[in-house]
Amino acid sequence: MSFEKLSLIAPILRALETQGYTTPTPIQSQAIPIVLAKRDLLACSQTGTGKTAAFAIPILQLLYKEKQAEQSGARHIKTLILTPTRELAIQIAENFRDYGAHTGLRHLVIFGGVSAHTQIQTLKQGTDILIATPGRLLDLWQQGHINLRYIHQFVLDEADRMLDMGFIHDVKRVITKLPEKRQTLFFSATMPPEIAQLANSILTNPEKVAVTPVSSTAEKVEQRLYYTDKTTKRALLIHVLKDASITSALVFTRTKHGADRVAKELNKAQISASAIHGDKSQNSRQRALTDFKGGRIRVLVATDIAARGIDVDNLSHVINYEIPNVPETYVHRIGRTGRGGASGIALSFCDEEERAYVKDITKLIAQQIPVVDGHPFPASLTAPVKPAPAVQMRQSSSQQMAGKKKNPHHGKRKWHGRPQGKQAQ
Length: 425
Ligand code: AMP
What we know:
Layout: H1 10-19, H2 26-36, E1 41-44, H3 51-69, E2 79-82, H4 86-99, E3 107-110, H5 117-124, E4 129-132, H6 134-142, E5 153-156, H7 159-164, H8 168-176, E6 183-188, H9 193-202, E7 207-210, H10 214-220, E8 221-227, H11 233-240, E9 249-252, H12 256-268, E10 273-276, H13 282-293, E11 299-302, H14 304-307, E12 317-320, H15 327-334, E13 344-350, H16 355-365, E14 371-372, E15 390-391, H17 396-405
Parallel strand pairs: 1-6, 1-7, 2-4, 2-5, 3-4, 5-6, 8-13, 9-11, 9-12, 10-11, 12-13, 14-15
The structure holds adenosine monophosphate (AMP).
The site of adenosine monophosphate has 17 residues, from helix 3.
């Protein structure tokens, strides 16, 4: 399957070529025709599957065609994309910029935590596509800066995350402001009952698409588990980062304070690191992210919420400094590496209290995580550790990764994901 087969217009095909995309991902090949046919869509698809392009590409095409047919030059917001975090909003805006480079369509991104002044000024100039987090959207709508009457495509992105983050009421309020007659695209990685209910209430006769079940992300990523103590995690992290093949690592901590502490310790050990979390100003988060993407810092330490939407090409390693207590979060985290069909490595540090979390995770991903034996900071307790296939610290997989980067495809990115609909055991 190629993008040409999806009946995409030349300006978009040209942009995809510039991005180096050759093959649509499963969510793209399924969702694009549905969106182009102006149908409602219910997509069960997590980040890392190419879902942003799955809605951005056909929306750009529909708007482009509409614009050509239009007589008046007035610019109204026709498409609204609601997304839970600032990082994700910026990420989506970058996608619209890239795929829409030759369409002449305008997009604008608004989110909280920064001054609204510039956003209001830019809104006055008019936009076709608005990407927003719910709180800031409602604020600016209430102040009369946003007219939602012309919306005819509405995308709700990461609906389950909206629920987790307590934004669901804001989302419902936004929906009451939208015209009844519209196309709605609903994306969620999981479908807890409240989300399924919301989908039911806002979609009209939707086409349903489900790709890459949560557990299959785990199959693409090479995982390793280090049993250690809470008190030795810092030393273990510094030890692990001596491996030069770890070119860029996203380290997850549970708390903001923990993220700051780990970043500080790493810098003390001459390992360049920054922390990114909700208490940091938007500017400092953006700076840390840009430095990380640009290779100026090697380690980004993040909390789960801050990491949502971080999209770094060629992220070599994800390190779970602390094991999440929600097993799906583990899959979201390790899905940061191994994106766009690439492979990646995820290391997890587990102390005694976290063993129960690991048990839940292995149940969800339906596989054991290989345990690294023989590292210098083993767990001090003698309680039995459920046996899992042991691996020795090797360089080989990382070297394979490094080799992959120098592949002969001249930067062309081909989707090597699993065949659609294939379920993990
Ligand atoms: P998303 O699920 O939207 O967060 O996308 C995950 C990553 O996959 C992003 O880095 C995209 O740039 C990349 N991507 C999306 N579609 C394709 C494609 N067809 N081929 C290669 N990479 C892609």
